[in-house]
Amino acid sequence: MKKPITLLLVILLVKTGFAQIDPDLLRSPDRDSTRIKLNMDAVYDRPFLQAAKLPVALGGYAEANYQYLGTDGITEGHQFQMRRLTLFVSSSIAKRIKFLSELEFEDGTKEINIEFASVDFEFNPLLNLRGGIVMNPIGAFNQNHDGPKWEFVDRPISATQMLPATWSNVGFGVFGKKYLKNWVYAYEAYLTNGFDETIISNSENRTFLPASKANRDRFEESFNGAPLLTGKVALRNTKIGELGLSYMGGIYNKFQDDGLILDDKRRLNVFAIDFNTVLPKINTFINAEWAWVNVDIPETYTEQFGTKQQGGFIDLVQPIIKKPLFGFERAVLNAAIRLEYVDWNKGIFSSTGGNISDHIYSVVPALSFRPTPQTVIRLNYRYNWQTDLLGNPAAKLAGFQFGVSTYF
Amino acid sequence: MQNKFIVLSLIACLIIAGTSCEKTIPGAPEDDQILDGPIEGLTPEQNRIFLNGDVAFNGDVFSAANGLGPMFVANSCGSCHAGDGKGHPFTTLTRFGQSDTLGNKFLMQGGPQLQNRAIPGYQPEKIPAGATFSNFTPPANTGLGFFEAISDATIMAMADVNDANGDGISGRPNWITIPQYSELRPGTIVRNGKYIGRFGKKAAVYDLLQQTANAYNQDMGITSTYEHFSTYKNQDIEPEISNQKVLDVVFYLKTLKAPVQRDQNNPDVISGKQVFLNISCGKCHTPQLQTEPSSIAALSNKTFAPYTDFLLHDLGPALDDKYTEGTALTPEWRTPALWGLGLSKNSQGGEYHLLHDGRAKSIEQAVLMHGGEAEQSKNKFQQLPSSEKTKLLKFLESL
Fold first, then answer.
1. Is any Cβ of chain B less than 8 angstroms from the Cβ of A301?
2. What ipTM describes this predicted complex?
3. Is the predicted pLDDT of residue A31 greater than 90, yes or no?
4. Is the distance from CB of B46 to CB of B300 less than 8 angstroms?
5. Does B119 reach chain A within 8 Å, measured CB to CB?
């Protein structure tokens, strides 16, 4: 608890230190945060602040919001939230050896996570070695989740309530890229520590991969000694867009302890597909992700915990005004919409043969104003329809959310 | 331009912070469309206890980490009693091992309740060879405080053990032994050391404390100081929940509102009720009862319309599972309350699953499956002209 705060202080001091240096010495690349390269590049493709000759670059982002949401006539009232404050430090240790770390404070200081802390060795563009705390490349959101890049106050439901974004673990892996004319091909593969039994034994009362995030021991030891494999291939054509296919899988349960057998080995598998593009002429940004989860659960457990899950989202972002406004040279006003769906339990009841529900649909129309590419002010209206396990009439949640998110 | 933007943002701010906030969120369902929520007239203090109980009932999900099982049927009260309404076949539980009034012969083999699920690494129970069994679909949990607040004398007044009035309908209480921790109601009637049960399909439970402590124990494998023997090998283990929690849940159950009838003034509903009474449905499904003075003012001296008499009736061989509890005979069932009937589908996944084991898939089917003491009444139902039948069913749906 104390350590991250000290670190935060040091970073802030260093930053204010820089501020007293001649600002011309600082390079602050003014990148368009909505126009991303490959999703896998997102960790380094961020605005960093760097003093001319220092090998260390600093950055971060913050998100705060206000919301007024209610479910079936009952509201929690007006809520102001400091969703997160994230700090990155990157450094070039040597030519082709880089280090990057990302430290995140969620909901004030309720949760403090090292999201990323790894060193990359580039042997060849096609072969890089990465080790440390890595973000498992499942889907696209997990790797490319910085708040200022999105027009929506909430992170996608499928990414955070079905897939466990942001999900990082200690491990090692390789990645590489190949450029061919208008094409980029890339791959990534990591072995890391992984999930544990809380994914089917938790207070959410459903199969819930994010439950394993609460297990902080995973940065120190594997729950069961079986590594989690995460792999992704992605390709991008400068005209068509980017397509990613990813897989994450491993054994999640403690099948033995002290050499004694406790259970069968039980696997979980996740497949994801992600796609993003910008439509020519009208400049509509389309970003979508869909994932399938499949968990081996003992038959004698309860159908409350699904063996199959499925869900995803699609964002459509349409710039409507793109011109200098209030002295902001590159201001943009976007209209956007997100459609989301998650089915946490795709099974059927053995008692009736009927469908097991436990799903949610959601629509989020949004307006976002970007005075600069790195800063966004957003106004969302969210409407969720959530159906319980048995398929009873959906609970309806809706309301306004307003927030700011910016790199700094 | 600048002005325009300021106007725009002002409008946005107004939408958000303005007086119309409540209009931006989905409206609350009408009170008569839902079963959950407290009775009117609770004090702020009682509201707090109600909310604590609500959280424990609907929010507490048990897992291996906080005591679930090892063998269990479900992992939270709320998963079996969604929205405090009736349950679904998925949440139906099985009891076995007692076939006469002499008690359960399979207590040492896991009786009376089957824990048909188990946490990973453990094996669930199976029904032992030779044991008869019955499946129980969860009933609604509404208005239970009213059930608690009637007197034994009120129940006895409805009984007609030897069918003295010759209408073919008898009705008797289930005389049961009660746990040490149950506190006797004022005016409790005792016979040969046995008491009148009023909760459960067989009326084999004395009060909501017994029901709750047993639900934690038998349905979820959670021990308390009240029921401290684990369903796993009958081990006497330390309590897995506090007494406070159990008592909060009991208070919650006690103060759940009574279902509100819909379309009360619809002429069809009004004449449907008359048909209901004419063909003797109301002889078991008693339309109106009165509570005694209660420590909870909102429950004191209230008339309410549960449509039950809390008595056992022999409903004939088709509904006889050869399993029983207390001193009930195997074809005998406690008349279920009919209030809230029309809302059953909203908690049963969109379909009706009626009668003790959910076998009836419509209200009409449930009526047609009546036999035994209800045979005559059922026959009259079958002979109703279709317009009358429609009105009766409309009335039942309005409950």
1. yes
2. 0.88
3. no
4. no
5. yes
Where does residue A231 fall: left (phi above 0), alpha (psi -120 to 50 degrees), or beta otherwise? beta
Instruction: Please identify which residue in the block is written with the tokens 């498992």.
Output: A136
Q: What is the mean pLDDT of residues B264-268?
A: 95
* pLDDT tens, residue by residue, A111-148: 888 999 999 999 999 999 999 999 999 999 999 999 99
Is pLDDT at B141 greater than 90 in this prediction?
Answer: yes
Spatial contact of A222 and A193, defined as CB atoms under 8 Å apart = yes
Closest residue in chain A to residue B93, using alpha carbons only? A351
Residue-number span of the structural domain to which B277 is assigned: 267-320+336-398
pLDDT in tens, B347-396: 999 999 999 999 999 999 999 999 999 999 999 999 999 999 999 999 99
- Locus of tokens 């949610």: A360
Give the lowest-confidence range in A1-10, B14-23, B376-385, B386-395: A1-10
Determine whether the interchain pair A351/B350 forms a contact, defined as Cβ–Cβ distance below 8 Å.
Answer: no
Could you tell me if B263 and B274 are in contact, meaning their C-beta atoms sit under 8 angstroms apart? no
CB-CB neighbors (< 8 A) of B72 in chain A? 302
The one-letter code for the residue type at A38 is: L
In whole angstroms, give the CA distance from residue A205 to residue B397.
Answer: 32
Of the candidate ranges A24-33, A170-179, A198-207, A259-268, the one whose mean pLDDT is the lowest: A24-33
Residue A401 burial class via C-beta count within 10 angstroms: exposed 0-12, middle 13-18, buried 19 and up:
buried
- Taking residues A97-110, what's their average pLDDT? 89
Q: What residue in B sits closest to A200 (Cα-Cα)?
A: B63
CB A377 within 8 A of CB A51: no
Domain ranges of chain A: 26-407
pLDDT band at A218 (very low <50, low <70, confident <90, very high): confident
Q: A393 contacts in B (CB within 8 Å)?
A: 346
**Residue of chain A minimizing CA distance to B346:** A392
CA A243 – CA A236 distance, rounded (Å): 6
Domain presence at residue B294:
yes
Nearest by CB: B117 against A302, A354, A393: A302
Residue B226: predicted pLDDT: 96
- Residues of A whose CB is below 8 A from B123: 300
- Write the CATH number of the domain with boundaries A26-407: 2.40.160.10
> Following DSSP, what letter does each residue of A165-213 receive, concatenated?
SS-EEEEEEEEEEEEETTEEEEEEEEEE----GGGGSSTTSS--GGGGG
pLDDT of the residue at A32: 42
**Which residues in chain A have Cβ-Cβ distances shorter than 8 Å to B349?**
354, 357, 390-392
Q: HEC string of B71-125?
A: EECCCCHHHHCHHHCCCCHHHCEEEECCCCCCCCCCHHHCCCECCCEECCCCCCC
Residue B371 lies in a domain: yes
Domain count, chain B: 1
A92 vs B: CB within 8 A = no
Rounded to whole angstroms, how far apart are CA atoms A188 and A166? 17
Residue B369 lies in a domain: yes
The residue count of chain A comes to 408
Reported as a single tens digit per residue, the pLDDT across B307-342 is: 999 999 999 999 999 999 999 999 999 999 999 999
Output the six-digit token pair for A323. Answer: 């011109």
| B49 part of a folded domain | no
Whole-angstrom Cα distance, residue A64 to residue A378? 11
Per-residue pLDDT of A230-240, as tens digits, reads: 999 999 998 99
Residue at token pair 């979508």: A288
Return the closest-CA partner of residue B287 out of B278, B275, B277, B297.
B277
Of A75-84, B18-27, B326-335, B359-368, give the lowest mean pLDDT range.
B18-27
Give the start-end residues of each E strand in A30-182.
49-51, 56-71, 74-94, 97-106, 111-124, 127-135, 168-180
Percentage of residues in chain A with pLDDT exceeding 70?
90
